[in-house]
Specification:
The chain is 42% helix and 8% strand. It has a 10-stranded parallel beta sheet, with no helix packed on it. The longest helix has 21 residues. This is F-box/LRR-repeat protein 15-like leucin rich repeat domain-containing protein. Keywords: Ubl conjugation pathway.
Length: 360
């Protein structure tokens, strides 16, 4: 049975707007099938619960057509069983879909479902397949051919993908701006990053958290090929060294967020490269209103010294160590406790002076 409460609420909401009431005449609409397509499309755009939309598609042909034409964003993460079958049945009807979230708590999605998406949803720009442990490179090959307009792709935790799959995908999906490969140990290698650097020059955000096969060769390829990179998470990429950070400092002028948690090969040399690159770009940034680094995680980077990190902190005013802001994260670096941002120092200085009273 269709839960029509939300549909009815949206209908009432639209009927209260003068233009709809004048156009349609309230008395003329007695059943769902009487509602004109224009109004059905407006209702579809207002419904938040996508389960309601899917069930509504079973009511009448008008609803099915409205959903096919009007639904551009869909989340199926609420589906706890048989997600693949649901996707296979829905995808052919959703040819205007632009955003699709298929995040799962337990792995359900299979390659055939992604292949169906790729066959029908050619306008797809944003796809979330996170935690799809069952998917293989077959899915990436299908997306490469069927969804070349992808701008945002989340495949974090998809452990069965390979670097050759990523290489193939990026050869076709060249508009990618946001890519999440967190935990994709087999997929995120230097080979894959070289392909990303070669093919995805619009990339702005990349998550490589806990991809332990990533090395300097891959990160340097990214830095040279993706000059618009703004956010890069290298947490747990234990193989990288200062050379990676130096390349990013020199080649990615818009970088605002960098995660280096547990990258224990990182030394002061990397910190000073960020400072020096900021100095070179200061006049350009001033003209464009950019601030440089706004977030940096160097937790467990135990080779760093206070002088280098303080120089970095002084250079980037948006990096904060003060309570509640913490955009410079240094957990586990006991030798960096003396490092403070300007406002933390200012707050300390502004504490009221309390004179000591001596007993007579």
């Amino acid at each position: 049975m269709v839960r029509s409460e939300e549909l009815n609420q949206c209908f009432e909401k639209l009927m209260m707007t003068g233009d709809i009431s004048k156009k349609m005449g309230r008395a003329a609409i007695t059943e769902w099938k009487d509602i004109p397509m224009e109004l059905l499309l407006r209702i579809v755009s207002l419904v938040d619960d996508h389960r309601t939309i899917i069930m509504a598609s079973q009511v009448c042909i008008g609803w099915r057509e409205a959903i096919s034409l009007g639904l551009t964003h869909l989340c199926l993460s609420w589906c706890k069983n048989n997600m693949s079958n649901l996707v296979i049945s829905l995808a052919p009807k959703l040819q205007n879909l632009q955003s699709l979230v298929l995040r799962q708590d337990k792995p359900q999605l299979e390659d055939i479902a992604v292949e169906t998406i790729a066959r029908h949803c050619h306008d797809l720009q944003d796809l979330d397949l996170s935690k799809s442990f069952k998917l293989t490179d077959r899915s990436l090959y299908a997306l490469a051919h069927g969804c070349p307009n992808l701008v945002k792709l989340n495949i974090s935790g998809c452990t069965s993908f390979s670097d050759h799959g990523i290489e193939y995908l990026t050869g076709f999906c060249r508009k990618l701006k946001i890519l999440n490969l967190c935990g994709c140990v087999g997929a995120a290698t230097d080979l894959a990053l070289q392909a990303i650097g070669r093919n995805c020059n619009q990339l702005q955000s990349l998550n490589l958290g806990w991809c332990e096969n990533v090395g300097d060769v891959g990160v340097m390829s990214l830095a040279y090929g993706c000059p618009d990179l703004r956010t890069l998470d290298l947490c747990g990429c234990v193989c990288i060294t200062d050379d990676s950070v130096i390349a990013l400092a020199n080649r990615c002028p818009h970088l605002t967020s960098l995660g280096l948690y547990y990258c224990q090969n990182i030394t002061d040399r990397a910190m000073y490269s960020l400072v020096h690159s900021q100095g070179k770009k200061e006049s350009i940034k001033a003209r464009k209103g950019e601030e440089g680094l706004k977030s940096l995680n160097i937790s467990q980077c135990t080779a760093l010294t206070p002088s280098a990190v303080q120089a970095l902190c002084d250079c980037f005013p948006a990096l904060h160590t003060c309570s509640g802001r913490h955009s410079l994260v240094m957990s586990g670096c006991l030798n960096l406790t003396s490092v403070h941002c300007a406002c933390a120092v200012q707050a300390h200085r502004s504490l009221p002076y309390v004179p000591h009273h001596h007993a007579h």
